[in-house]
Amino acid sequence: MSESTGIENDDAAGGPVHPESMAGGAAEGLRSRCRAALGSWDERLDPVIERDPGYAGAFVALAEEAAAGPLSAQAKTLVLLACDAAMTYRNRESLPARIQGALDAGVPPEGVLEVLELVSVLGVHALNVGLSIALEEYADGESPEAPPAAQARVRERFERLRGYWDAGWQPVLAHLPGFLDRYIDFSAASGRHGVLDAKTRELVLIAIDAAGTHLYAPGIRIHVRNARAHGATLAEIVQVFELLSLMGVESCLLGVPLLNAAGHP
Asked: What is the pLDDT of residues 150-172, one digit of tens each?
């Protein structure tokens, strides 16, 4: 999933659209351009086009620029799908279009399911962050570590199934090896579908950690490192960040319909 999109951003195919250019089929043109760039259209953009076509055109041009990188159409749709489905965003309104966009791009249903299951691992960051803080606050109390043999067994399983060890897991390994053992199985369960290659899985994990609704720096670093080990280029990783930058439009997708409903044209 790494061929170029081939999207050009000249006056004919891209560039901001100003209010005076919205006559006729210009609105449908924006929809078509957005679908071509991102693989889907969020109908909540329609009120934004009506209210401020210049802004809508600028957003579509930005989306085209973000899409015009080395990631394949499938990879782009899966990155966007992952962010919409992640527990830190849970964008129910645009998720149906994202799923359909992935299917239209040729991702089989099992691939969509694999992404949904893969991003469910995000919940464990409550433990990654919280346990270290709790252990620091209770440093003067009882915080016994698990026996070394139990820790060694679980770490060996982690390294064998994941192909790496992240020191960020050490507090969990030391104090909750049983939970980490079960988490290894849970986090690996999505891989049994076998649709996504290792690089694409890491790009999806980069996306949910780097999204503006999460920004989990330790996870970004380890998954960038893993993606590189699986052949991802810097340009592919940077394009993931570009696509995530489009999430900010949600402010208008939520707010403009409410402004219209307030009766102020």
From this structure: 999 999 999 999 889 999 999 99
